[in-house]
Amino acid sequence: MPINSKKKGAKFERDLAGIFREYGYTGSRRTAQYCGNTGDASDVVGLPGIHVEAKHQETMRLYEWIEQAKRDAAAGTERKLPAVFHKKNRADILVTMRLEDWMEIYREYESGLYFDGLKNGQSEE
């Protein structure tokens, strides 16, 4: 029996929150935005600094979805980078971000590697 799109989307949001919790983001959960009870328009909360737009659809409309994520992230009270977590049936979950947002995350990651190396006694060359 086919699942309707709202139920499929809600299940994906719950599953995504569960995956985030498995990675250690224990406060991750589906938001109540679906019934208007939150100030956060993210579909899933719990990843600090990231606005999560979750889409489980067969037809990808990535540019529309990233525009929605950008608008919703900008409307919030905290600065968050917009990201679309998306999948289609029987496929891996993918993440789409604007290049400048991804580069911001990568720079932070890279600087952490640099400082971790110095902390572990590696010399700067």
Question: Overview of this structure, please?
Answer:
- By secondary structure, this protein is an alpha+beta fold.
- It is 42% helix and 17% strand.
- The protein is built from three helices and five strands, in the order H-E-E-E-H-E-E-H.
- Strands 3-4-5 form a three-stranded mixed sheet. A two-stranded antiparallel ribbon has the order 1-2.
- Strand 4 (81-87) and strand 5 form a beta hairpin.
- The model is unreliable at 34-38 (pLDDT under 50).
List keywords for this structure.
alpha+beta, about 120 residues, about 40% helix, two-stranded antiparallel sheet, 3 helices, 5 strands
What's the topology here?
Layout lengths: L4 H18 L6 E2 L13 E2 L4 E7 L5 H14 L5 E7 L6 E3 L2 H21 L6
Parallel strand pairs: 3-4
Antiparallel strand pairs: 1-2, 4-5
Coarse morphology: globular
Mean pLDDT: 87
Radius of gyration: 17 Å
Hey, roughly how much beta strand do the residues contain?
Answer: 15-25%
Summarize the helix and strand pattern as letters.
HEEEHEEH
Biggest beta-sheet profile = 3 strands, mixed
Biggest sheet: strand arrangement: 3-4-5
Quantity of strands, as a count: 5
**Low-confidence region ranges:** 34-38
Helix content: 40-55%
- H/I helix tally: 3
- Give the terminus-to-terminus CA distance: 61 Å
Structural class: alpha+beta
